[in-house]
Amino acid sequence: MSWELLLWLLALCALLALVVQLLRFLRADGDLTLLWAEWQGRRPEWELTDMVVWVTGASSGIGEELVYQLSKLGVSLVLSARRVQELERVKRRCLENGNLKDKDILVLPLDLTDRSSHEAATKMVLQEFGKIDILVNNAGRSQRSLFVETSLDVFKELIELNYLGTLSLTMCVLPHMIERKQGKIVTVNSLLGIVSVPLSSGYCASKHALRGFFNCLRTELATYPGIVVSNICPGPVQSNIVKNALSEEVTKSVGIDVAQYHKMATSRCVRLMLISMANDLKEVWIADHPFLLIAYLWQYMPTWAWWLTNILGKKRIENFKKGLDADASYFKTWKTKHD
C-alpha cells in the first residue's frame, strides 16, 4: 500500500468520524461527554445504591421526579421544601412505587432563605442516617419580567433563595463530607447559568453566581478527590417553574400555565442527572435542540451567540408582552426522541 493511498484512507476515516459526531450532536439531548457516559459509563443502579441523598426542592418539578427515580435505587432519602403537605405526598408515592420503607425517607421541611435553620437541619439528617453521601441543591425560583419594570426586592429574593440559601446549606454539609473525605455536592443550575436572555436578568445573575462559586469550590477541594462538585445545567424542562416564577413584584408570580410541548420530559432530564452523578461529571448540559446548540454557541462562539440572542431576545420580549410563552411560539418544535 502506497503512502499516498494510506493518507487518503486516513483522511476518509477522519471525515467519517466527523460526520458521525455531527449526526450524534444533531440527535443529542445532552453534552457529548454526558451522552458518552450514558453509553459507556457507570450505571446509577450500580453506583448510588445504599447512599443517603438529601434533595432540596423535592416537592415538585425536577426535585420530585429525582426522588421518585432515586427511590427505586435503594437509597435513603431526605426530602426538603417549604410545603410539608406536598413533601408527604411525594413520600407516599415513593413508598408506593419505589423500593423503600418508611424508615428510609425523612421529610424535613426547609426554607432556604431562613439560613439560621440550616445547621439544625443538617444535624437532624446526620442524627437520622449518620451520614450524607449526596447533597442535591435543587431548590430555586425563576423570573419573568423586564429589569426596568422590576422591584429590587425581586432581585434580593432571587439571590437569597437561589444563591445564598444554596451556599448556606452547602456550608453546613461540607464539613461532614470533609471529615469523611467523600461525598457529592450536586447543584441543579440552568443553561441560563451559561447563557443570558431577556426577562430573566435576576435569575441569570443568581445562576451565573452559582456556577462561578461551585467551580471555585471544586478547585478549593482538590486535596479531597473523594468529594465531587457537579453543576447540572438543564434547559427547558416540563414543570411549573415558569408558572411559579417571580414577576415585577416579589409578591407576584406569573401564575399562568405555559406551553410545555417544546420542553424536555422531566423523567429524561432526571435520568441524565443520575448518570452524571454516577460518573462524577463536573458539569453537564441537558437540553434538546435548539437550546443545546445555543449553549454550545455561547461557550465556543460568543460573538455569534450575542448576535443570535439579540435577534431571538426581541421576539422573546414581544411574546411575553402578548401573554404568550416566551420561547415556544418562535422555536421550531423539534421531534422529541424521549417521551
Automatic annotation (TrEMBL):
A single GO molecular function, which one? oxidoreductase activity
- Please report a single Pfam family linked to this protein: adh_short
SUPFAM superfamilies, sorted: NAD(P)-binding Rossmann-fold domains (SSF51735)
- Report keywords, A-Z: Oxidoreductase
Against InterPro entries, the record matches this protein to:
NAD(P)-bd_dom_sf, Sc_DH/Rdtase_CS, SDR_fam, SDR_family_member_7
Which family does the entry's similarity section mention? Answer: Belongs to the short-chain dehydrogenases/reductases (SDR) family.
Please state what the protein is called: Dehydrogenase/reductase SDR family member 7
Give the organism, scientific name: Acinonyx jubatus (Cheetah)
